[in-house]
């Protein structure tokens, strides 16, 4: 049985992992979950008690949560080295460095902005403070990433890797929260442009928007959340 990636919408960071699976080219299945409603159903806790996406049900029926754990699982199985590098190479080290930075400080900087957007009941004074704090943090993390980007077309190589997948799912949050114009960071803006035009990213974005078509044939279809939970429960 193929692994199943559970990815969230709207604007989930997991979109980039869908693109990475397409780049990798091995068979997989998907489970699309509404993060504002369906994911909060008590049954989802059987998959991830922290009520988050992404989650991966492996080909052995085990559940992996957390983006970095899922990326490591994919890297270990990327025998064709389509989205990763030889494990002891400098490129592999640099890829993991980017992944760690993006998944921690870069992603975490958006936390106050999400908290302000989703606060119920609203507290205008606190939301205003969170937006200022979060906006400053997002700009600072973008400054650091801009400094890290080299001369390759993508983060580490001339082709996209796991690091680019992890980035593109989160980078668009800059636009969601309207922190600043992306052209403020020319290298990052150019990289985003290349990624957003990539067929795998276009496919992943379309799926997130509910358009079930396209892809390179690696995806063997979608399963429902109940089917995914049943498969995990039957292990």
Brief summary:
Helices cover 50% and strands 10% of the residues.
Could you characterize the architecture of this molecule?
- Helix 3 (about 90-110) packs parallel to helix 6 (about 160-170) and helix 4 runs antiparallel to helix 5 (about 125-150).
- The chain contains ten helices and five strands.
- The longest helix has 25 residues, at about 125-150.
- With about 240 residues, it is an alpha/beta fold.
- The radius of gyration is 18 Å and the shape is globular.
- The chain has a five-stranded mixed sheet, sandwiched between helices.
The chain-level mean pLDDT equals: 95
Given the C-alpha coordinates, what overall shape results? globular
Q: Number of helical runs?
A: 10
Radius of gyration, in Å, reads 18 Å
Order of helices and strands: EHEEEHHHHHHHHEH
| Helix coverage percent | 40-55%
Strand numbers in spatial order across the main sheet: 4-3-1-2-5
How many individual β-strands?
A: 5
- Report how far apart the termini are: 12 Å
Based on secondary structure, the structural category is alpha/beta
Give the uncertain stretches in residue-range form.
Answer: none
How would a crystallographer describe the biggest sheet?
5 strands, mixed
State which percent range the strand residues make up: 5-15%
């Amino acid at each position: 049985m193929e692994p199943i990636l559970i990815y969230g919408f709207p604007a989930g960071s997991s979109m980039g992992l869908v693109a990475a699976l397409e780049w990798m080219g091995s068979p997989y299945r998907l489970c699309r979950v509404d993060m504002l409603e369906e994911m909060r159903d008590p049954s989802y806790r059987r998959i991830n008690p922290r009520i988050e996406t992404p989650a991966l049900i492996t080909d052995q029926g085990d559940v992996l949560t957390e983006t970095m754990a899922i990326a490591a699982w994919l890297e270990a199985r990327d025998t064709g080295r389509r989205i990763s590098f030889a494990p002891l190479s400098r490129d592999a080290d640099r890829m993991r460095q980017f992944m760690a930075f993006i998944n921690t400080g870069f992603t975490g900087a958006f936390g106050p902005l999400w908290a302000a957007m989703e606060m119920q009941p609203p507290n205008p004074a606190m939301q205003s403070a969170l937006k200022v704090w979060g906006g400053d943090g997002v700009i600072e993390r973008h400054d650091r990433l801009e400094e890290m980007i080299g001369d390759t077309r993508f983060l580490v190589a001339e082709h996209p890797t796991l690091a680019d997948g992890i980035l593109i799912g989160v980078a668009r949050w800059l636009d969601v929260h309207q922190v600043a114009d992306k052209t403020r960071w020319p290298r990052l803006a150019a990289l985003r442009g290349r990624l957003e035009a990539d067929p795998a990213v276009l496919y992943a974005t379309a799926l997130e928007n509910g358009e079930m078509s396209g892809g390179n044939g690696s995806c063997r279809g979608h399963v429902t959340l109940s089917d995914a939970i049943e498969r995990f429960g039957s292990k």
